[in-house]
């Protein structure tokens, strides 16, 4: 059954139509990849789902609840977490603090209680810390950097920290915007492994935007191809790799397509 | 002997564990592992229970006396549970270095005829599964970390706690069986096969008995005591005899606490948190620490930097008093006390040495400069000399009797002799003690060669100096003579070079050649930092090692070393290698010792270049990754000729003011 439904999404900036009636449906527990050339509107879809952008038309349904008009923080609380194409971490804070911030929507203690750090606030903090250690730091293998300042870390690790922060939101569905961009082969392999772990062990649904076709074809259950704000294909990776529309529209010629689609 | 009753003499190691469990129960911590960011403790009782359960589980799987159990993985409590469990059954454990490549792992498993292997995680399991068709005797693979293992359905795989569960069930059906098996153990049973990937050829497995391991621990303890309340951090590979000596036999005999770091990368931070009393590491660890202090102090605030520069000469002076066995004059002691409060205390604390009482280095020779450096900081570092074949140790410095060119005196019950000395007293070092091994596993020829008339022939050249200390010069096979018969020790020159913070490894050459040369590997981290500070752009290791500026930097260091060497032994030419030496390429042993023979064969072109007139060489080289993949690397390698030290301007006299307050 579908966990997230996007129906007839339309978004434009001035005269430029970014999304033109996009509909897609993500099933619970799958890895759903969105691919397409630059400017196809991939990130716009994520921004609409997280409610950063207000679409002109269309409906967003998450677990049978219409979220088309919910505020971003409420969407987050429902269990929709994301990472960004360009890293959006607090550069001057430690890795641990950044991650814990991700759980902020779930914390109950107020400003004063947190400030004085007594009783329930203290207990809640301790519980959060052990959850972060147990379920996130260990999973993503970032023990060695938990006390490091984020700004001093290499790019690949910052990406991992961003994923960690998204996980701290205890998401049901995770929107990943180019998690492998700018990574070397080893870092890419690590990231792919983490995504699979999160998906299979935690049962978190993944919506993935990625340009590395090798990864997309390897780990996705279904692939959705977007061009100029409209869908041109949708299906399992093998279908997409051999789809004529995709090869022509998305990559220009069949020669280039063979290398870029990981054939 | 302190704090050790005589009742442990003659006991096999598992019985020591049983005794500790009885004496300390849940009151004292035996092992500690950092997990989920928190130090998790294992009491002696629970240590014993784990060993008992795992041993019974192995038994239930049909594993028994004289079977072999291979263990591969990072330092974790499960490593020790598995080792002690195997010993409890009268079967024989053996460790495989966790960074070994596929073929090495397969060789050792086959050679030892191991039926079960305990592999830490997915990475290690993958290595074994990939070689499975070539491992006919292997029946079960026990893994201790289930992360990433959900899709593995191989029938040979079983999860560590599952084995323990089988064991508990087995105990219910056969109560008292485990204790009975323990009583049946003899101290002369084999307790461990210690595989050493010698500097030549295939690894050899030394057979060590319980008596060997215990005797070694107790005799070392007699001259370098440890206490129940001591802390020890186990971060070096457990297959190494030195780590076995501390984390297994000494810990069981004395009852101190062994802590395992969270991950190999966090070892330094974990060391700092534990603040051990006891530390035993090979030279590369001490060299690494001294390099990082020397480089990092440049980044400290102005005040700290000046304090460091003021304090070090005082520390060196105090160290020299100590080596000369003189009582320092009152003024120096006062100054040293001040410097201790000002900086040494804080610096030692940062390194995790705040409580360090017994620090030793062994496994290879440590250069005198690094040795002096730690004594200057006030760390009472001692040299240990020994081989795996004698359970790790035969000589150590005594307190107050430390110097940097000897390796100290024999420990109790140990005899050291010089075999066939030449007129100056130099010959092969031979030794014997109750810790002497029983021979190599399935290798009688090598055993006969090494063990003659009950003496262990080390292959090391050395002599006994006037104060009765053993001085180890080098491997006999490594001692070199130039064409004109000038003798020199490459290791001595290499250690001098390695004191430079920018050099991580080096190979000195010159046997039957007209002059001495060196192939040098730069320290990527520190040299990279040096380059960044000077705005020298670089991409990879290879690129950095080819920079003119880096060559100039290293040339300066080579000249510094040349000044302290006799004229004949000075380095005439050197080159900076385009890659670091690596055990995966068989250039180093797993304990990171240089394999000269292999390097001479591999770097033929480079070596020929050092003895030709050419100033640069075009090199094509194959690099191998741990998973068996290879890559080809092409580079233009420069050869730098070093002039005689006198030709270098001595840069004028630098004023003391500048030395201390300058950048």
CATH fold node name of the largest domain in chain A = Rossmann fold
What's the helix-strand series of chain A? EEEHEEHEHHHHEHEHEEHHH
- Pick out the low-confidence regions of chain B: none
The CATH C-level class name of the largest domain in chain A: Alpha Beta
Oligomeric status: heterodimer
Total individual domains of chain A = 2
Can you walk through the features of this model?
The complex is a heterodimer of chains A (263) and B (663). By secondary structure, chain A is α/β, with parallel strands linked by helices. Chain A has 2 domains: 1-79 and 171-263, Rossmann fold; 94-168, no CATH class. Helix content of chain A is 42%, strand content 24%. Chain A contains 11 helices and 10 strands. In chain A, strands 6-7-8-3-9-10 form a 6-stranded mixed β-sheet, with helices on both faces. In chain A, helix 3 (95-102) packs parallel to helix 6 (155-168). The longest helix of chain A is centred in the middle third of the chain and has 22 residues, at 119-140. Chain A starts with a strand and ends with a helix. The model of chain A has no long low-confidence stretch (mean pLDDT 88). Chain B is of the alpha/beta class. Among the domains of chain B are: 6-280, ANL, N-terminal domain (Rossmann fold); 479-661, GMP Synthetase, Chain A, domain 3. Chain B has 22 helices and 29 strands. In chain B, strands 4-3-5-6-7 form a 5-stranded parallel β-sheet, sandwiched between helices. The radius of gyration of chain B is 26 Å and the shape is globular. The two termini of chain B are 50 Å apart. The interface between A and B is medium-sized, with 16 and 12 residues.
């Amino acid at each position: 059954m579908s966990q997230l439904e996007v129906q007839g999404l339309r978004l434009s900036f001035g005269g430029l139509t970014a999304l033109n009636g996009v509909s897609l449906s993500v099933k619970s527990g799958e890895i759903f990849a969105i691919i397409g050339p630059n400017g196809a509107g991939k990130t716009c879809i994520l921004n609409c789902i997280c409610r950063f952008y207000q679409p002109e038309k269309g409906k967003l349904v998450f677990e049978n609840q219409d979220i088309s008009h919910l505020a971003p923080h409420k969407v987050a609380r429902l269990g929709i977490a994301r990472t960004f194409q360009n890293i959006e971490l607090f550069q001057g804070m430690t890795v641990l603090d950044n991650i814990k911030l991700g759980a902020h929507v779930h914390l109950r203690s107020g400003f004063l209680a947190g400030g004085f750090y007594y009783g329930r606030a203290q207990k809640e903090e301790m519980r959060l810390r052990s959850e972060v250690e147990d379920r996130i730091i260990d999973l993503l293998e970032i023990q060695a950097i938990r006390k490091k300042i984020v700004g001093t870390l290499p790019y690949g690790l910052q990406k991992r920290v961003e994923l960690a922060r998204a996980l701290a939101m205890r998401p049901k569905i995770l929107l990943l915007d180019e998690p492998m961009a700018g990574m070397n082969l080893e870092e890419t392999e690590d990231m792919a492994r983490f995504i699979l772990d999160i998906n299979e062990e935690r049962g978190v649904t993944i919506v993935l935007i990625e340009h590395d076709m090798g990864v997309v074809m390897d780990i996705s259950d279904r692939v959705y191809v977007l061009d100029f704000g409209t869908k041109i294909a949708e299906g399992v990776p093998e279908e997409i790799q051999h789809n004529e529309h995709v090869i022509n529209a998305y990559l220009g010629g069949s020669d280039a397509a063979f290398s870029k689609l990981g054939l | 002997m302190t704090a050790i009753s005589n009742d442990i003499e003659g006991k096999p190691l598992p019985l020591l564990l049983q005794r500790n469990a009885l004496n300390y129960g849940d009151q004292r911590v035996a092992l500690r592992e950092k997990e989920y960011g928190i130090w998790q403790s294992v009491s002696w009782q629970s240590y014993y229970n784990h060993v008992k359960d795992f041993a019974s589980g192995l038994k239930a799987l049909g594993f028994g006396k004289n079977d072999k159990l291979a263990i591969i993985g990072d330092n974790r409590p499960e490593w020790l549970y598995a080792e002690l469990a195997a010993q409890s059954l009268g079967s024989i454990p053996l460790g495989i270095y966790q960074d070994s490549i596929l073929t090495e792992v397969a060789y050792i498993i086959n050679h030892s005829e191991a039926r079960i292997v305990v592999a830490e995680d997915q990475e290690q399991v993958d290595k074994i599964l990939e070689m499975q068709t070539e491992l006919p005797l292997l029946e079960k693979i026990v893994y201790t970390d289930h992360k990433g293992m959900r899709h593995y359905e191989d029938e040979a795989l079983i999860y560590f706690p599952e084995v323990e569960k089988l064991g508990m069930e087995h105990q219910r059906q056969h109560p008292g069986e485990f204790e009975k098996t323990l009583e049946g153990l003899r101290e002369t049973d084999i307790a461990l096969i210690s595989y050493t990937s010698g500097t030549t050829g295939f690894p050899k497995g030394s057979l060590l008995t319980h008596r060997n391991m215990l005797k070694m621990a107790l005799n070392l303890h007699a001259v370098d005591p440890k206490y129940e309340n001591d802390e020890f951090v186990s971060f070096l590979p457990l297959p190494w005899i030195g780590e076995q000596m501390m984390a297994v036999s000494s810990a069981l005999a004395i009852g101190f606490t062994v802590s395992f770091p969270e991950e190999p990368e966090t070892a330094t931070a974990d060391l700092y948190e534990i603040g051990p009393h006891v530390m035993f590491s090979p030279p590369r660890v001490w060299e690494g620490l001294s390099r990082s202090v020397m480089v990092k102090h440049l980044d400290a605030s102005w005040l700290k930097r000046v304090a460091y520069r003021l304090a070090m000469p005082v520390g060196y002076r105090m160290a020299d008093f100590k080596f000369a066995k003189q009582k320092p004059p009152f003024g120096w002691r006062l100054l040293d006390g001040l410097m201790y409060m000002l900086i040494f205390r804080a610096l030692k604390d940062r390194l995790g040495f705040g409580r360090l009482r017994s620090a030793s280095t062994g496994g290879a020779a440590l250069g005198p400069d690094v040795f002096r450096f730690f004594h200057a900081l006030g760390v009472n570092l001692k040299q240990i000399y020994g081989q795996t074949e004698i359970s790790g140790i035969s000589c150590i410095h005594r307190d107050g009797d430390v110097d940097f060119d000897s390796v100290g005196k024999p420990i109790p019950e140990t005899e050291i002799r010089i075999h066939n000395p030449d007129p100056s007293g130099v010959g092969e070092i031979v030794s014997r003690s109750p810790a002497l091994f029983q021979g190599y596993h399935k290798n009688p020829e090598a055993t006969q060669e090494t063990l003659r008339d009950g003496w262990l022939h080390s292959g090391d050249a050395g002599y006994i100096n006037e104060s009765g200390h053993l001085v180890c010069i080098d491997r006999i096979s490594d001692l070199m003579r130039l064409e004109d018969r000038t003798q020199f020790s490459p290791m001595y020159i290499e250690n001098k070079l390695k004191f430079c913070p920018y050099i991580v490894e080096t190979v000195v050459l010159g046997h039957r050649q007209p002059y001495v040369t060196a192939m040098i590997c730069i320290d990527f981290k520190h040299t990279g930092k040096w380059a960044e500070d000077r705005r020298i752009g670089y991409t990879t290791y290879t690129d950095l090692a080819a920079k003119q500026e880096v060559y100039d930097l290293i040339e300066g260091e080579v000249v510094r070393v040349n000044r302290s060497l006799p004229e004949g032994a000075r380095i005439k030419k050197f080159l900076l290698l385009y890659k670091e030496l690596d055990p995966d390429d068989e250039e180093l042993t797993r304990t990171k010792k240089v394999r000269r023979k292999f390097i001479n064969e591999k770097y033929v072109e480079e070596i020929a270049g050092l003895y030709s007139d050419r100033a640069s060489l075009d090199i094509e080289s194959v690099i191998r990754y741990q998973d068996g993949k290879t890559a080809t690397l092409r580079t233009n390698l420069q050869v730098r000729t070093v002039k005689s030290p006198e030709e270098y301007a001595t840069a004028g006299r630098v004023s003391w003011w500048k030395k201390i307050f300058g950048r």
